[in-house]
Amino acid sequence: MSWVIVAHFYDVESGRMELDRRGQGSGYERFDIPIARDGGIADLLTESRRQDRRFDVVICESISRVARRAFEGLSIERALEQADVPLFASNEPITLSGSRAQRILQRRINQSVAEYEVLNTLEQSWGGLCTHVRDGWNIGKPPYGYRAKTYRHPNPTKAAKGQTKTRLEPDGRCGETVTQIAAWRHHEGLGYDTIADRLNKDLEKYPPPTPPNPDRARGHWGKTSVYEILCNPKYTGYQVFNRRASRSRHGKVNDPMLWVWSPEPVHEPLIPKWMYDEIAAGRRPRRRAIEVGHRMSKHPQARRKYLLRGMVFCDCGRRMFGCRRHGTTSYYQCKPDKNNKTQTSHSVYVREDGILDALISFFAERIFGEHRRAALAAELSSVDDTSERQHQADEDRLKRSVANLERRQAAILRQAMDGDPDDPFTKALRATYNELEVEKSATEAALVAHAKTTKTDRPAPENLELLDALPYVAAHLLEAPEDLLRPLFEVTRLQVRLHGAGGRATISIHLPADRLADVADAAGGLARTDDERADCVRARS
User: Fold this and answer.
1) Are 287 and 293 a contacting pair, CB within 8 Å?
2) How far apart are CA 244 and CA 128, in angstroms?
3) What is the Cα 42 distance to its own chain's centre?
4) Which of 101, 189, 438, 519 has its CA 20 to 30 A from that of 373?
5) 151: β partners
6) How many CB atoms are located within 10 Å of the residue 42 CB?
7) From the CB of residue 140, how many other CB atoms can be counted at a distance below 10 Å?
8) How many CB atoms lie within 10 A of CB 498?
9) What are the φ/ψ torsions at residue 472 (nearest 5 degrees)?
């Protein structure tokens, strides 16, 4: 018996791919392969079903070369068997007679071993990557804001070959830009577009990121670039891996439960961990910056602008939207959703002019009035701060507990390092250390939970000086036009929250120290406009 090779079929993709995806690549053209290719595995199976096929049997180097997974290998073998085409492997007995059971047993063993070797290699490779990350080493290109700092490889053999590893360190202005982006998002609640606009105003101070392919660089910031920075946990100082399924799911973001984190921060953070968690959780409502201005809603039914759009909240937590009733009167309404049982069970209306009267009185007396400082000082002196002091005492107690546990662990560690690892006393020390670690983790979790609990948010006595930086323009608020009131409300991050059906509401504003100049400019605009109006009236008369 003699056979002649009449055709060559081979794939250039991975043997672990599904059969319908194999054999379609053209990567083999980059290699100088002296054997002519008659197609891939799909072409082989197609020709095997034809009456005029060129071959009677199929021979492979080893059964593992047909497929790296037993299912695909058995599928190919079954398809050839149905076409009366035997499949042989060069490392197996090639006979047309004899015990077929023995050949099948040997083949199945070879297939199982091949699949085991692939899975074992993948698991070892994955374990190595996870260990690499948990030790604080970086994988891939450093994210924007960081640069790679090269270290000698910790393995002496690899170090002798010149191999290195890298950690992350802040990259000058780029690192400062990341911190600024997080501050704008957290403290001012700016949207991605608004942040990008601010960054693009000074590209020298805030250099834009460069993609892996420099040819795709746009030279300016976009909202996607801002979003990617705020979503990257590496900026918290931790090393993180497996955020995206780069191969199996075409780069989609994995469930955070599947991310691999270093047990502790390993490089300098650009965004505090607590701030990153709050931004990621989306606890703070999105607010518009002062640059957005007083615009009409994009809703198709919108017919007019509402001065307090996006600033009035119902008792159920939803933003109230503007509407007109009785022809010309402006209201803010919260309409219940039948599918949301947590909302109010009936529609709530509140007149805009009623809210505006209260706001004008509040700003005139407490923000821009002559006796604002005395009023605030008197209120602070009468506030019962018992709950706040208790809150701070509990926080200090938890911090002292964590510090005490760390000191006890350090003492145990020093004793264990000097002892014999097999000594019962050393083993007992190790067990005690682990028990303290569990207790410390529980205390740290309690500290984090305690920090998230509600605490009295009131200005400290030293913050009274902020009021002194503002002008006295109380008399100009009563006749100020809406186009000038709106910027004032936006820059102070005004919020009005209703309480039940009793007609009560809470007014809250923010006076950030770094934006007092903006508040003063908005208030100064009210005064200038009022003076100009008076001049015009005198000129007409």
Assistant:
1) no
2) 18
3) 42
4) 189
5) 165
6) 16
7) 10
8) 22
9) -95, 100
Instruction: Write down the mean pLDDT value for the chain.
Output: 78
Strands 321-325 and 329-334: antiparallel
The owner of tokens 């693009």 is: 200
Taking alpha carbons only, the member of 254, 248, 509, 483 closest to residue 358 is 509
pTM of the model: 0.47
Q: What is the pLDDT of residues 182-196, one digit of tens each?
A: 989 888 888 888 899
The answer to whether the beta carbons of residues 146 and 267 sit under 8 Å apart is: yes
Looking at per-residue pLDDT, the higher value among 311 and 339 belongs to 311
Would you place residue 537 in the very low, low, confident or very high pLDDT band (cuts 50, 70, 90)? very low
Q: Are 331 and 349 in contact (CB under 8 A)?
A: yes
Tens of pLDDT along 396-453?
Answer: 888 888 888 888 888 887 777 767 777 777 777 778 888 888 888 888 888 877 776 6
One-letter amino acid identity for 473?
V
The answer, yes or no, to whether residue 326 has pLDDT greater than 70, is no
What is the pLDDT, as a whole number, of residue 235?
92
Burial of 509 (0-12, 13-18, 19+ CB in 10 A): middle
| First vs last C-alpha separation in the chain | 122
With vertex at residue 293, the alpha carbon angle to CA 288 and CA 299, rounded to the nearest 5 degrees, is 70
- Six-digit token string for 112: 């199982």
Q: Put residue 476 in one of left, alpha, beta given phi > 0 → left and psi -120 to 50 → alpha.
A: alpha
119 sits in which H/E element: helix 100-134
> What gap in Å lies between CA 150 and CA 534, rounded to an integer?
68
How many other β-carbons are positioned within 10 Å of the β-carbon of residue 224? 10
Structure tokens given for 485: 């009131």
Q: Where are the beta strands (DSSP E) in 377-503?
A: 495-499
Q: Minimal CA–CA distance to 419: which of 410, 407, 427?
A: 427
C-alpha separations of 515 from 184, 477, 488, 491, 511 in Å:
12, 20, 12, 8, 7
Structure tokens at 435: 């028990």
Max Cα distance, the chain (Å): 122
Residue 352 near residue 360 (C-beta atoms within 8 A): no
Query: Helix, strand, coil shares of the chain as percentages rounded to 5?
Result: 50, 10, 40
Single-letter residue type at 77: E
> Given pLDDT bands bounded at 50, 70 and 90, which one contains residue 106?
confident
